[in-house]
Write a structure and sequence with these properties.
355 residues; 28% helix; binds the ligand C=C(O[C@H]1C=CC=C(C(=O)O)[C@@H]1O)C(=O)O
Length: 355
């Protein structure tokens, strides 16, 4: 199908309030879309049906689904537009900053008391859009971050979400799986070699250890790479690739996803304490930010599920941008604030001409 026809279809679908999703896998120029034929609300507990899953951070909330068998499924080639990304100046809002620093301090206190090793805290910031168009949004989002998983999702019950995430939750192909431990952040500069401090190295190692531990029950073979520097837009992260084989007969896409989500890259460790801390203290609902999303094929024998990071929800003329960071004993509140300001750029640079 032609790109312009796909966009035309998407706009029509959106005007009729019908669910749809358009996405590109990391490093791919191919755009895939599911256009649901009716407004039926589809939710899932098990990941055994073909379609596209959109799950919230809080696993007690509803997981949405666009089923393939109730959708028109389309593909097209995406021609990358040459887009020059420019940084958007966001001045510190004193109240927002104070409240985020308080949250970071509280997380550090809990860690000092040994209630947790790591807690990922986050915030949401609203931006007014003066000249919003879905076409422009898609063109900029999909062109700007070719190595990320890019998507735009719409459902009348969730609203319009989009993002460009660098983090794989789990990729499955028959019995083989891939996941990653992604943590530690610094702005990208051309300086090499890249230096990582002990705060970032320890934080990322903790994520790797917890992921390996949670996978023991569902895997028979596990291979773990050395940590390496990975670029995501204008940021650098530390990443470890974890691959392996699912335990025969015992593990499925559903069980491995349940074992991993929410990972310590978006929640913390121990998971239960960090999760409760987040729900009690963040002061807003993350909804689908730090949830997971992606296509499921072959009844769950094949899937590419991603963690929903570097994303935003667009409501009328407001873009709600979500950002967070992992807090450990070594965290400096001012640096944590700066890190969220930097992470915000990923979506702001997409929105820049519409602000
Ligand atoms: C929670 C976010 O990032 C996570 C993923 C990579 C690095 C992170 C960090 O350095 O803190 C976070 O754990 C976010 O981008 O909102």
């Amino acid at each position: 199908m032609d790109y312009n026809l796909l966009i035309e279809k998407l706009l029509k679908h959106h005007s009729k309030n019908l669910p749809f999703v358009v996405f590109s896998l990391p490093e791919s120029n191919s755009m895939n879309a599911f256009f649901q034929k009716d407004m039926q609300l589809c939710t899932v507990n098990k990941l055994t049906e073909n379609g596209f899953v959109f799950a919230p951070f809080d696993y007690k909330d509803t997981t949405f689904f666009i089923p393939e068998n109730d959708s028109e499924s389309l593909q097209c080639e995406f021609i990358n537009h040459n887009i020059e990304l420019t940084s958007v100046t966001v001045s510190d809002d004193i109240e927002e900053k104070e409240s985020y620093i308080k949250l970071v301090d509280k997380a550090i206190e809990a860690i000092k008391k040994r209630s947790a090793n790591k807690i990922v805290v986050s915030r949401q910031k609203d931006f007014e859009l003066k000249d919003f168009s879905i076409e422009k949004l898609i063109e900029r989002l999909f062109s700007s971050y070719p190595t990320a998983f890019r998507y735009i999702w719409y459902h009348p019950n969730t609203g319009l979400w989009c993002g460009a995430t660098p983090e794989t939750l789990v990729q499955i192909e028959n019995n083989s799986f891939k996941t990653m431990a992604l943590a530690g952040t610094q702005p990208f500069t051309n300086r090499v070699p890249v230096f990582w401090g002990s705060k970032e190295l320890d934080e990322q190692q903790l994520v790797t250890d917890v992921i390996i531990d949670s996978l023991q029950r569902v895997t028979s073979v596990l291979k773990v790479s050395n940590p390496f520097t990975y670029q995501a837009g204008s940021l650098l992260h530390l990443r470890t690739d974890i691959t392996g084989v699912l335990k025969n007969g015992k593990a499925t896409l559903t069980t491995i996803t349940a074992a991993l989500h929410p990972t310590p890259a978006v929640c913390g460790s121990p998971q239960k304490f960090a999760n409760e801390f987040i729900l009690e203290n963040e002061g807003y609902n993350r909804e689908f930010y730090t949830g997971f999303l992606g296509p499921i094929l072959e009844n769950g024998q094949s899937a590419s599920l991603m963690v929903n990071l570097r994303c935003m929800k667009i409501e009328g003329n407001i873009a709600h941008v979500f950002v967070g960071g992992g807090i450990t004993l070594g965290s400096q509140p001012q640096d944590e604030w700066n890190e969220t300001q930097n992470k915000m750029q990923t979506m702001l640079q997409v929105l820049q001409p519409m602000l």
